[in-house]
């Protein structure tokens, strides 16, 4: 006898915002499967920029001071003192535009606001800020990348995103042709890994000055 068909996780009569995916307790792979997407966990071959990051020392000093002086008990605090300074410096180098709380709507399953949506001449980057729980935060990021695939007109084969608590960053990618999200195994810590993190962020948004060496 065949096993009964499993009830869907995503109810067709309900609407799902990106934030709602963070609250779902189901396995990330099961959630993404219902959106027609696979999930793999492996080391990503992320690009590293050769562009000189001339203000890196100053940025690192400001972040270190923020960590020691600011109570980072809220997501808002982490966004303002840890995440925003990094993304502003990345935007300065790549001449990218930063959209904050960027709204998109594809359908009832793919809608909501992106915490940070960076657009350069070459690429886009989605950054999801979380106070804690990178695992469920990555599920939300993955869904946002799936939505962006239908939102943008770019023909870039790979879309990149990152989920971060401010002091820890994790990258993900979405292969648009075979609809697979890859969750990177590497975690980048601030301020220890700031230089490598910056090289990756810059390379994603300005790939002409990058080399595949991460």
Describe the structure.
The protein is α+β, with helices and mostly antiparallel strands. It is 36% helix and 27% strand. It has six helices and ten strands, in the order ααββααβββαββββαβ. The protein has helices at residues 18-23, 28-33, 56-69, 75-94, 134-151, 194-205; strands at 38-42, 48-49, 97-107, 110-119, 124-129, 158-164, 168-175, 180-184, 188-189, 210-211. Strands 1, 3, 4, 5, 6, 7, 8 and 9 form an eight-stranded mixed sheet that branches. A two-stranded antiparallel ribbon has the order 2-10. A hairpin with a 4-residue loop joins strand 4 and strand 5. The radius of gyration is 17 Å and the shape is globular. The termini are far apart. The model has no long low-confidence stretch (mean pLDDT 93).
Number of helices: 6
Shape summary:
globular
For the biggest sheet, the summary is: 8 strands, mixed
Percent of residues in helices? 25-40%
Unreliable stretches, pLDDT < 50, 5 or more residues? none
Element-level helix/strand string: HHEEHHEEEHEEEEHE
Structural class: alpha+beta
Strand proportion, as a percent range, falls in 25-35%
Summarize the helices and strands and which ones pair or pack.
Layout: H1 18-23, H2 28-33, E1 38-42, E2 48-49, H3 56-69, H4 75-94, E3 97-107, E4 110-119, E5 124-129, H5 134-151, E6 158-164, E7 168-175, E8 180-184, E9 188-189, H6 194-205, E10 210-211
Parallel strand pairs: 1-8, 5-6
Antiparallel strand pairs: 2-10, 3-4, 4-5, 6-7, 7-8, 7-9
Helix pairs in contact: 3-4, 4-6
